[in-house]
């Protein structure tokens, strides 16, 4: 519709255009949240949340959950991974945890120790519910 009502995006719904990097030798203890892409070549002990893409490099390690639009794993993840779009597990990937993804690509050699579920109807509703619960908990904690 040419003269239809313009859809307005709130600031919290927009993805950031920046790329964040956790470099080799860097260790982070705590949750990490970004609206942009993030590449992890170091170690994170905590959950990683992104409205964009999460890349875990060959030297990267996450001990915690990943919740993102898409992800690519070459390193180690000990925790659950949930993506609303696509998850790539490269040949050097090691995942010890459950996977929820709309689409999943697993290269020969990747290791998965956990439950795996694919399909848009499952992942979007589960991720949305988890995010709503986390937001409610965060609001109650600050009130």
Structure description:
The protein has one domain (16-142). The chain has 1 helix and 16 strands. The relative contact order is 0.11. By secondary structure, the chain is of the alpha/beta class. It is globular, with a radius of gyration of 16 Å. The protein has one helix at 120-142; strands at 19-22, 27-29, 32-34, 37-40, 43-45, 48-50, 53-56, 61-63, 66-68, 70-73, 76-78, 81-89, 94-96, 99-106, 111-113, 116-118. Strands 1, 3, 4, 6, 7, 9, 10, 12, 14 and 16 form a 10-stranded parallel beta sheet that branches.
Question: SSE layout and pairings?
Answer:
Elements: E1 19-22, E2 27-29, E3 32-34, E4 37-40, E5 43-45, E6 48-50, E7 53-56, E8 61-63, E9 66-68, E10 70-73, E11 76-78, E12 81-89, E13 94-96, E14 99-106, E15 111-113, E16 116-118, H1 120-142
Parallel strand pairs: 1-4, 2-5, 3-6, 4-7, 5-8, 6-9, 7-10, 8-11, 9-12, 10-12, 11-13, 12-14, 13-15, 14-16
Strand pairing plus helix content: what structural class? alpha/beta
Rg value:
16 Å
% residues in beta strands:
35-45%
| Number of domains as seen in the coordinates | 1
What is the number of beta strands? 16
**SSE succession:** EEEEEEEEEEEEEEEEH
Basic shape = globular
Poorly predicted runs of 5 or more residues: 6-11
Mean pLDDT: 84
**Portion of residues within helices:** 10-25%
Biggest sheet statistics: 10 strands, parallel
CA-CA gap between termini: 43 Å
Number of helices: 1
Any key phrases for this structure?
single chain; 16 strands; ten-stranded parallel beta sheet; alpha/beta
Give a summary of the structure in a few sentences:
The protein has 143 residues and is of the alpha/beta class. It has one domain. It contains 1 helix and 16 strands.
């Amino acid at each position: 519709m040419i003269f239809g009502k313009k859809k307005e995006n709130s600031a919290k719904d927009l993805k950031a255009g920046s790329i964040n990097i956790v470099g080799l030798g860097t260790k982070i203890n705590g949750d990490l949240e970004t609206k942009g892409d993030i590449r992890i070549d170091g170690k994170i002990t905590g959950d990683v949340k992104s409205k964009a893409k999460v890349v875990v490099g060959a030297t990267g390690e996450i001990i915690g959950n990943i919740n993102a639009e898409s992800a690519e794993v070459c390193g180690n993840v000990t925790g659950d991974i949930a993506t609303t779009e696509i998850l790539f597990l490269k040949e050097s990937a090691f995942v010890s945890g459950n996977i929820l993804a709309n689409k999943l690509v697993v290269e020969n050699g990747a290791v998965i120790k956990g439950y795996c579920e694919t399909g848009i109807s499952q992942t979007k509703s589960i991720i949305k519910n988890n995010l709503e619960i986390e937001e409610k908990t965060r609001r109650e904690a600050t009130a």
